[in-house]
Write a structure and sequence with these properties.
about 290 residues, alpha/beta, five-stranded mixed β-sheet, 10 helices, Transpos_IS3, IS3 family transposase, Transposase_IS3/IS150/IS904, Integrase_cat-core
């Protein structure tokens, strides 16, 4: 029943035509108009907050992480309400796609045993790393990216990029992880069975770093290195899988994603600690150990 019709027809007649009770329908609706306007204004304000956070996340966050970010900012908002507001305004997070493995095993090399056993959980930083290689398309050709993740924090502690995927690329990334990751003796260095990871150069580098232990997953199975595969899916989904104009542009964007967003700003749900960034998770582990 529209308020404009009140000037043309009596309220009693309108309620009779619509088979509605005058006291419980029209007047109740009219008295609730102020509350509805207040709810719409509150939803608009919430939508603005969500849009700001969604844009800051590179349009990657869905309902769970938007909810976690709002809680971190002190806003106590129901998760279902956030889902409704995002759905009504068509605000969506990134959905990851499945990618086939590009691992090329060295059939002549003798791979190391699997010391992880698909248990991608570490009690503290510096005791278990996982690594893999991704290929990013550019107009100049492929840009190869190697990353090492700490399983306790899922922080990218070492990475390297080049126009090739020879063994020195994974060695350079491991050297970076050793310098900034605080690796402990007997730290497990886990990867797939690609020729880069079974090369003499890589094995010798592990030995030079001390008593680190090499570990390799099974050939042809993405589950043997699932944590690293999951990171590639995340990176390609949130950075945007496309062809960059040149390798320099791709390198700059990958660097920005890892250093300014993923390690320091992107929330991840950690079982003991809740939603934290990888850097915050490392700090929380360090404080726990110190205590």
């Amino acid at each position: 029943m529209r308020r404009t019709e009140k000037a043309n027809y009596p309220i009693v007649l309108l309620c009779r035509v619509l088979h509605a009770a005058r006291s419980s329908s029209y007047y109740a609706w009219r008295e609730g108009e102020a509350a509805r306007q207040a709810r719409r204004a509150a939803d608009d304000a919430l939508a603005h907050e969500i849009t700001v956070l969604h844009t800051a996340s590179r349009r990657a966050y869905g309902v769970p992480r938007i909810h976690a970010e709002l809680r971190r900012l002190g806003h106590r908002v129901n998760r279902k309400r956030i889902a409704r507001v995002m759905r009504e305004r068509d605000i969506r997070g990134v959905t990851r796609r499945k990618h086939r493995s590009l691992t090329r095993p060295d059939v002549k090399a003798r791979p190391a045993p699997d010391l992880i056993g698909r248990d991608f959980h570490a009690e503290r930083p510096g005791i278990e790393l996982v690594g893999d290689i991704a290929h990013l398309p550019t107009a100049e050709g492929w840009l190869c990216l190697v990353c090492w993740l700490d399983l306790a924090t899922r922080e990218v502690v070492g990475y390297a990029m080049a126009d090739h995927h020879r063994a020195e690329l994974v060695v350079d990334a491991l050297a970076m992880a050793y310098g900034r990751g605080g690796l402990e003796p007997k730290c497990v260095i886990h990867s797939d069975r690609g020729s880069e990871y079974t090369s003499a150069q890589f094995i010798d580098r592990i030995r030079e770093l001390g008593t680190r232990q090499q570990s390799c997953g099974r050939t042809g199975s993405c589950f043997g290195n699932a944590a690293a595969e999951s990171f590639w899916d995340l990176l390609k989904a949130e950075i945007g899988t496309r062809t960059w104009p040149d390798r320099a542009t791709a390198r700059a964007e990958v660097f920005t994603f890892i250093e300014t967003f993923y390690n320091r700003r992107r929330l991840r749900k950690h079982k003991p600690f809740g939603y934290l960034t990888p850097a915050e998770t490392r700090q929380r582990h360090q404080h726990t150990l110190a205590a």
